[in-house]
Amino acid sequence: MTSNSFQGLNRRRYLQRAGATLLAPIVAGCGGGDNATAMQLSPGASAGVAPVAEWGREAIKAAMADGGTSAVSVALWSDGEVVWQEAFGWADREARIAAGTQTRFNVGSVSKVLAALSAMILQDRGLLSLDTPVVQYLPEFRMLSDGHRRITVRHLLSHASGLPGTHIRNVFAFAPHTDYAANAEAALADTHLKHEPGELSVYCNDGFTMIERVVLKLTGTRYPEFVRAAILEPLGMTQSSFTLAPFAEGSFAHPYDGKQWKQEFVSAYATGGLASTPGDMLRLGRMLLGAGMFEGRRIVSAAGVAEMGRNQTAKLLINPSPEYQIGLGWDNVRQSGVLAAGQTAWQKNGGTAFFSSEFYVLPENDMVLMLTGSSLGYGVAPLAEKIVLQALKDRRIVPTLPGAVGRAPPALAAEAAPDTAVAGIYGNYLGPIRAAFVAGRLNLHRWKAGAWTAMHERLALRSDGRWWSETGDGFAFEFVVLRGMRYLVQRRPGGAGHYWTTAPLGQQLPPLEAPLSAAWLARVGATWELANESPDSAVMRNGPMRAPLGVLAELPGYLMWADSELLRPLDDTRAGMTVKVSVNDGRDLTELVLETVDGVEQIRSNGSIFRRVGTAA
Predict the structure, then answer these.
(1) pLDDT score at 49
(2) Residue 51 host element (H or E)
(3) What does the alpha-carbon distance between residue 393 and residue 408 come to, in Å, rounded to a whole number?
(4) Hey, how many other C-beta atoms are within 10 angstroms of the C-beta on 182?
(5) Within 13 Å and on the Cβ side, how many CA atoms surround 589?
(6) The domain 27-370+390-394: what is its CATH number?
(7) Which pLDDT tens digit goes with each residue over 117-154?
(8) 264 and 106 Cβ atoms separated by less than 8 Å
């Protein structure tokens, strides 16, 4: 696997970054760095006398050192005051400019909270209704599936629309791309839905990008300007804006992934484009705590805030992960780590190609946390969760921190032959998973970089009906049938390890009766190079991206794109999406269209164009 390959781990990482906001907890990364020598107490930082600040300061420093992170900033509101506000590391490592509390960070998909808030403001104004089909506001909105006419604003804001996932073209760049939302809508016109609206909820950035188009149509104002006038200025969020133009050097945290880069511009404004400070984000959180009021001024109705914080997943037809209670704009309105302590938290994760953030609002406890950093490797999700729990303990809202879940497997199941019908290939967007039995034990392998790689082996069936790892990691798997579709579902310790989290990893795919046509077979084995990405796109920073078109021997009839996603041929020039996997592993799916332009065959994929460059390595 080469550094410029659009396959295997590189593609998975890029698509995760393009989606940016995983609903499953992010696992802290590994890596080196010289951050231990760069820890700075920022100008204007709080004295840190609160116990949570004393604990959190050391935890952040350790996480930065482990993850090779250049800068982190945090702010915590608790019980009527800012109890901690501090920045660590370097805004500009090369120029030796320390990060401060006024340093801007790209907060990624935390921006989705503002998109949902914008919709609620428009509803307050009588311009929009959550359950009205989007085509009534955007008559020109088209897709190849008739179901697109049933997509509502609520579907867009709760990841239940059925849109493919993420329009990745120029989403992260080192220069502004203000035409991103229009290009995304145009690409959708030649794409099918991956599931019926409201059938399931799977993380979908394109839904929030379409909110930009709705705002423009209803108000005549571009989304960034609407947010500035309706939200940022009334809240006094003076250090917050979208990346429409370069910021002044020294005012923002530079991206860092072992090397410092220029300012990152996020083109998907509603889905992930806000740059802000934790201090500013506390103002947003305080308004939500105030049920739409901030310092005597109403920003949005109390009913609107309550609706954002209401579980939107109750009516889904496919939902094997009930602990993910998705709100409007929120990843979870009953975040499991805080719920384990008996409290309620609204939580949103955010990431870009370089930045990762967590935003918490605890509506019953007068608490807001914003934690953000300039890399992906410092374990932001468990770190933020621990800070919130520590703050609850400091205020004696919870007497003790929750203990770790028991990871010892239950007793072995009674002697019985395994159900061999569950063996086979499970598709998703990260790479197929093969489930196979050897001597009554379950082996799971994922296709990665052109070969099957062990995930978990020798899993034993236990009395709870799950196949457990015997390594003590607490991982367990089961096979669940919903609406005639069989899913491989994983359960594991979540966050800081004190609760369980479940999520489907893939949907079982049967072999196709029809063999691949001669037209498709002539393309199998070829490599295709991304041709219409801007040279200043972040995805191009290590050279042109390439994707192979192949097959998987164990599953006849399908095509494999970019060594990870299995597609079903629809005809000799189009291949479509195959799985309906909720939460995260069915996100960012692909539809391929073969066309010939000026005598050259190319693949069009959700707005990106790939040209054939040779045979696969």
Answers:
(1) 62
(2) helix 51-67
(3) 28
(4) 13
(5) 29
(6) 3.40.710.10
(7) 999 999 999 999 999 999 999 999 999 999 999 999 99
(8) yes
With H, G, I as helix, E, B as strand and everything else as coil, classify residue 476. strand
Encoded tokens for 217: 């149509």
Q: b vs e for 122-153, b when ≥16 Cβ sit within 10 Å of the residue's Cβ?
A: bbbeeebebeebbbebbeebebbbebbebbbb
User: Which tens digits make up the pLDDT trace of 37-90?
Assistant: 233 334 444 444 689 999 999 999 999 999 999 999 999 999 999 999 999 999
Q: Which two tokens stand for residue 538?
A: 């972040």
In sequence order, which residues have a C-beta less than 8 Å from that of residue 144 and are 6 or more positions away?
Answer: 189, 190, 191, 192
Is residue 611 left, alpha or beta, with left meaning phi > 0 and alpha meaning psi from -120 to 50? beta
* Three-state secondary structure call for residue 88: strand
Taking CA 277 as the corner, what is the angle to CA 273 and CA 279, rounded to the nearest 5 degrees?
135
Rg (CA), the chain: 24
Domain boundaries, the chain: 27-370+390-394, 420-509, 518-615
Q: List helix spans (H) across 189-274.
A: 205-219, 223-227, 233-235, 269-272
Q: Check residue 520 and give its pLDDT.
A: 97
| CA atoms of 370 and 348, how far apart (whole Å) | 10
